[in-house]
Known about the structure:
Bound molecules: adenosine-5'-triphosphate, magnesium ion
CATH class of the largest domain: Mainly Alpha
Helix content: 55-70%
Strand order of the largest sheet: 6-7-8-3-9-10
Number of strands: 10
Amino acid sequence: MKAHRAMFATALTMSFVGLVLQVQIPDLLSKAIDNSIVRHSVPLHFYVWWVVALALVGGVTGYVARLFLFETAYRFEYDLRALIYEHLTKMSFPFYDRVQSGQLISRANSDIRSVQMYMTFAPQILVQCSIAVVAFAYMLSINVILALVAMATMPFVYLTAVKMRTSMFPVSWLIQARLAEVATIVDENVSGVRVVKSFAAEDQQLGELSRAAARVRWSYVKDADLQARWSPAMQNLPQLGLALVLLFGGYMVIHGDLGIGAILAFNAYLLMLQAPFMMLGMIVMMGQRAAASASRIYEILDEQPTITDRPGAVDLVDCRGDVRFEAVGFSYGGDDGVRVLTGFDLHLRPGETVALVGRTGSGKSTVARLLLRFYDVDDGVVRIDGRDVRDVTLASLRSRVGIVLDEPFLFSLSIRDNIAYGDPDASLEAVVAAATASGADGFIRRLPDGYDTVVGERGYTLSGGQRQRIALARTLLVNPPVLVLDDATSAIDVQVELEIHDALRELMVDRTTLVIAHRLSTISLADRVVLLEGGRVVADGTHAHLLETSPLYTEVLAQAASREAADAREAATDLDGRDGPGVPGPTAVVR
Ligand SMILES: Nc1ncnc2c1ncn2[C@@H]1O[C@H](COP(=O)(O)OP(=O)(O)OP(=O)(O)O)[C@@H](O)[C@H]1O
Ligand SMILES: [Mg+2]
């Protein structure tokens, strides 16, 4: 609000000026009736022109006040939204593991809105209420007793408003919460539509949605019921004030103690005061809601990113690609969590390709995440070029270490833009070169719009194998000195994978590469294989050496192969048929 103080102050001043002008009008009316109509001492048009002039100036101030007020409100909202989003981009993976994205989105929308409303409109309402003081002063100047009589119902209007808001407040909360419930169901059904339909669970989901919708209806009806009870009471209380003015004022006029115009003026003042007093009750409600929303927003803003650049962190330049894990211990969720790695040692020499093999859930992906500092180690140290990864800047580390995940996330952009994601200025030649290396060029060219084809949300218009190849191209484009492939070719059939490998072998020559793989064909890319079990490396050597010496290695490979055979049978229809023949029996390959 401080950043927009000039605009906001102007808005409030203008609205105050406008109200002061408005307050003059009943007084003028009263004088016109008494002086021009009853006594004929002042020409009538004198007052008429004054009223017209006041209305015109009031129109201009009203325009400025409104425009500036709303502009302040929307600027404030913009600032807050930018602040939250900027903060979210800084948050680390442990935070995103914990929170639900739906929650974040609702905080970035409706909560910001309610804080904005309070911050900008509450002062405005206060200004309007302050005018009550001026109006009351006018009334006092006309007639003290009648002024007190006229105001007698105002405290009751205020109390009714407060009561109304407090009784309606829980219901309006309920409406918000239940609307969010409906939104969550709709959201999950849209993004999970493939699962819903594959289980023919549409009816079940419809039932759930209609139950949630019925709960929304119930709260809205409850809200309407409360409004119907309170609003008429509040609207009719001031009429009681009017009756009192008529009674006492009329009595005084009859006895010649007061001019007729005064009654008219009082009438107008009372109507003028009604709105701010009702709004005063609204401020109470808005304040409660804004306080709740602000605390929800602060919950995000107060959360400090756990993984940040250390003071004095340096950029990783001229990376040779020497990677070393030294006695690394790690568990998700700090000390309480299950230990994933204990005393994990691994050295990747510059230019070396190492395959990391292990049972599912053994911590292979975790090793990759630690190298990119998605998480920080609990014990030991991860070094790149001899430097602790915590001593180099995150941005430089992540631009030198490229990772391809097994479930690639694509954006709803063209294929070209997806591949050029890490370097938006890349030329089309560079994009095509990366796509060729990852074996994606062929199928991309067969798409109707080629490289300009826009992929559906998360890339769902492509097959799993196609998505993986685009993700691989995306990482190859930035040409990182250290490359991590986390099951990156798991959905690509062996035939195509072999072609990719030819390209990859060339690319891997002076690049340090860590391949996490289940398949023998992928493992064959590596100079060396390490076997991960129980959180540490239990075997290390060439494929042939491990086959001879480690029964566990043979077992892991066989398991992976049989799992893959099952997957292949299941996903046979999902695979892109145009890319070559099916999978030759992987189990046979292992033996
Ligand atoms: N974000 C997370 N929060 C908490 N626990 C996690 C998280 N990610 C993984 N884990 C746990 O850590 C362990 C190691 O997981 P990891 O993903 O490293 O296994 P993996 O070897 O890559 O398995 P896979 O071969 O199936 O990909 C698992 O037991 C898993 O449940
Ligand atoms: Mg994994």
